[in-house]
Design a protein that fits this description.
Length: about 325
């Protein structure tokens, strides 16, 4: 792979290998994240090998073992279940491999943690919900414990309910699997049918929001329900902005930017520079109204209109050409 003139070793000579080991292999977020990572890897002359974990903890663990055996320079651990990873990532660290983690808390001082400022993300979404619906409403909530971003967003939801006694969580459901949106749609249909007084659903993952929206449409209740989410993709923009969509706001980073930041963070580590203990990409609030008014149809158009969404200045260095661009 390519050498980069003026870059620190080993980038000056090329041949840098990095493994991206992902727990989640399904969904728009993962695809865009991976595309951004590939673009940034190309700009750095990195040979990036992507291992799809397929929502399987044992498989992801196995793939980290494989990456260690292949003597990669760096590993990006993307999501996962901490308890099944902690010892195997320590093995990688002990082998001199630089490890960074996105959205999984590996609880290791040697491993920088990348995240999308999940507390701020949830706070922006819930502030918008309060703005649209007042401070008293009956809510549905979609949550699966054990995923770091969802756990952080859940802390804010818990705090929000404690601060707003008029907000009642009437029903909670959620599942993360290879077909999350479809599975959540089935759950949401039963939950919303049993709780016809729910007017707001907090669904802080776009696959969750897509499932709830489908259920609302099938039940014919789109006009009396409002969905607040996390994440955005071109397909999501279409779903948010279409006529009568109950999906009224999301708070999101550009996942391609997060993928690029993850590669830059591991590249800095490989070059012997410290990317920092926490590497944070700030999300932006995107309301249905703003998206409709701006006539935005794709994530690329959004990036062009909203520089804070389209780029991140974290984990950069003069010798790194930032992607996506
Ligand atoms: C199951 S965790 C899903 C979340 O991971 C990323 O942080 C995305 O924002 C998504 O919401």
């Amino acid at each position: 792979s390519a050498q980069i003139a003026g870059a620190p070793a080993p980038f000056d000579k090329g041949g840098v290998k990095v493994a991206l080991v992902a727990y989640l292999s399904a969904g728009d977020f993962y695809q865009a994240y991976q595309a951004g990572a590939q673009q940034q890897a190309k700009a750095l002359g990195i040979d990036l090998r992507v291992y799809p974990g397929r929502q399987d903890a044992a498989e992801q663990r196995n793939q980290i073992e494989q990456a260690i055996n292949q003597k990669v320079h760096g590993i990006i651990v993307d999501h996962g279940l901490p308890e099944s990873l902690k010892d195997v990532v320590q093995k990688a660290v002990d082998a001199g491999i630089k490890v960074v983690a996105f959205d999984v808390n590996l609880d290791n001082a040697k491993i920088p943690q990348i995240e999308q400022s999940d507390h701020a993300l949830a706070r922006h979404a819930l502030e918008q919900a309060a703005k649209d619906n007042g401070k008293a409403f009956k809510a549905g909530y979609v949550y699966v414990a054990g995923f770091a971003p969802l756990d952080r967003r859940n802390e804010v939801w818990t705090e929000f309910k404690a601060q707003n006694s008029g907000v009642t969580e009437k029903v909670r459901f959620g599942v993360v699997n290879a077909t999350t949106a479809a599975s959540v749609a089935d759950q949401a249909k039963a939950a919303l049918r049993a709780n016809p007084d729910v007017t707001v659903v907090f669904a802080p993952y776009d696959e969750f929001a897509r499932g709830v929206k489908l259920a609302a449409q099938e039940l014919g209740i789109s006009k009396k329900l409002k969905i607040y989410s996390a994440d955005v993709s071109t397909a999501d923009i279409q779903e948010i902005t279409e006529a009568d969509s109950p999906w009224v706001a999301t708070v999101a980073t550009n996942p391609a930017v997060v993928g690029a930041v993850s590669v830059r963070a591991v590249a800095l580590s490989i070059a012997g520079k410290d990317p920092g203990r926490r590497v944070v990409v700030e999300p932006s609030l995107l309301t249905q109204k703003q998206l409709r008014d701006a006539g935005v149809k794709t994530v690329e158009e959004l990036s062009a209109k909203l520089p804070a969404f389209g780029q991140s200045t974290v984990a950069t260095a003069p010798w790194i050409k930032n992607a996506p661009n």
